[in-house]
Every structure is written in C-alpha cells, then in structure tokens.
DNA sequence: TTTGTTATTGCAAATGATTTGCATTTGCAT
DNA sequence: ATGCAAATGCAAATCATTTGCAATAACAAA
C-alpha cells in the first residue's frame, strides 16, 4: 500500500483509514469509516475522512461505488481481483460473489461497438437467506 | 400503462411525466423531467415531480438507477426487455447495449447460494468513439 | 535539532439532491 | 352538487458531501 503514497504525508488519520478499509469484506460508507476511525482517533472529523477518501481514490487505492436506491457512496480498497455483490433488498446486506460474468462480455462489446471499455459495475439484487426465513414465518 | 394506475387519480402532471418518460431512450434525472414537463405545464414544481416518480416506482412503472460517481438518480420506464448501458466516463453519454450477459448467470448464482435473486444492475464504463477521437487529436 | 514549506486537519458554513409539512386545489365517486 | 382523499405548490428541512479558512503537523533541508 505504502509505495503508492508518493507525494503524500503519512498522517495518522490516513493510516487509520487504510487500516479500517483493510478489515472490511464489503464496501463501507464514509460515515462508517468515520465511526471506526473515531474509536482510535476521537478527534478526527468527517470532512477529513472525505478528504482522505478523495485522495485515496485519486491514487487508485480506493474505489467508489454507489448502490441502487441507496444514495450514499460506499468505498473499498482496490484489490487484485475485483469483487461483485449480491445485495439484499430487505436488510441491505451485501454478500460477495466469487466470479464475474462480465469480463469476456466486455471484449465482445468492445469489438462490436468500438467503445473503449475500461471498467464495469454489476450487482445482483434479491432476498438473502435470513430474510427469506423471516418472511416465511410471518 | 394506464391499467397499472389503479387507486391513483389521473392528474395532468402525472400524465405529462409519463409522456416525457416514454420519449426517452436513456434514463433521465428528476430535474430533466421537471424541465421537460414545465414546457407543457409551466406551474409544475420539482417536488411534485419527485412525488410522482416515487409513486410510479412503487407501482413498478418506473425504475430508479444511480450511476458511478454521478450523485443524482436517474429514472426510466420499466419495459418488457430491460436495457443496459455503456457510460462514457468523459462526456457522460449513455449508450444502450442490446444484450444482457447476466440472466443465465443469475440462475447459476441462485442455485449455488440459495439467494433469491430478483434483479440486477449492470453498466459498462469507458470512452465513447467521439471522445476517443478528441483525445487522439489533442 | 531547528526551520521553512506545504500537506493535512477541524470546524463551521455552503452546496446540491431529495424530502417533508402544510394549507390549498383537484379528481372522482356518491 | 357534495365530500373526501389524493395531488399540488411553496418554503423549509434533511442528508450526504464539499469547501473556506485559520491552525496544526509532517518532513526535507539546513
């Protein structure tokens, strides 16, 4: 991680944001990051979190993602293999999906359309097991 | 369209919103709808547009979509065959893609995970032809 | 270690999209 | 025509995110 931070000062806040992000298995909101960082550094402010995230995004260390009908952005570390998620429309839980059906499709579309494709976004929506149980009982 | 509107009153504003949406080939923002409706009904207010959209979504006549690092929601009519888009990261233009690689994948994931999948969202990002030309010249 | 430059920070206020309260108007069933 | 609930316009509220500014901290150079 560190080697990418050229031109930046190693602030305590940023170190802590990175530590928090490393422990996440699903994308988190700025406020969630804020609350987790605050446990270690109580004086941190939310705007600082936003500025750190902004910088990490510009360094391509962090990804921003928005989710259908949730109007807050979520962030996650850029990893070697990117992930997709199933999102429960009831409890909003995000469950990672292992594989990605898009990559080969991208090539096909690129050839057919001449569009220079650089990325994609893909999410599945539905009801998770736990919520399905609940609605059966009710 | 009309038959779905049970329990609702046929207001002029809603008729006009539906008419506007029928003429779109790509999802539009609330403000874009507002401006188009205002051409016919100058007294309409933006909050009314938001309320009409909300109702149309709950009736499953309209879909809401958010797009990568664009913080305004976009709306489109639910159609028999759903569409996906390529989005140019430079000019923000949305170009419809004909086919959908997700549907068969959905079934596979459903079986493997027990997740009851009801829908998905999928977008491609890249540079459109026009923007590619421009950056070559520069 | 001290010093100077500049990135980083906290705070409060600004912004932009969307939502809501409320009093008024309208559609439609009776 | 009458009454009631849905729909509306307006202004104010809300929520996530951004920004201005003055104070602080990191780090390179002396």
Descriptors for this entry?
homodimer, DNA-binding, 27% strand, Dna Ligase, domain 1, 40% helix, three-stranded antiparallel β-sheet
Structure commentary:
Two copies of one chain form a homodimer. Chain A is of the alpha+beta class and 138 residues long. Chain A folds into two domains: 1-79, Arc Repressor Mutant, subunit A (Orthogonal Bundle), CATH 1.10.10; 81-138, Dna Ligase, domain 1 (2-Layer Sandwich), CATH 3.30.1490. Helices cover 40% and strands 27% of the residues of chain A. Chain A is built from five helices and six strands. Chain A has helices at 12-22, 30-40, 46-58, 103-113, 129-137; strands at 28-29, 62-67, 70-77, 84-88, 94-97, 116-127. Chain A has a three-stranded antiparallel sheet with strand order 1-3-2. The relative contact order of chain A is 0.13. The mean pLDDT of chain A is 89. The structure holds a DNA duplex (30 and 30 nucleotides).
List the helices and strands and how they pair.
The structure is a homodimer of 138-residue chains.
Chain A: H1 12-22, E1 28-29, H2 30-40, H3 46-58, E2 62-67, E3 70-77, E4 84-88, E5 94-97, H4 103-113, E6 116-127, H5 129-137
Parallel strand pairs in A: 4-6
Antiparallel strand pairs in A: 1-3, 2-3, 4-5
The structure holds a DNA duplex (30 and 30 nucleotides).
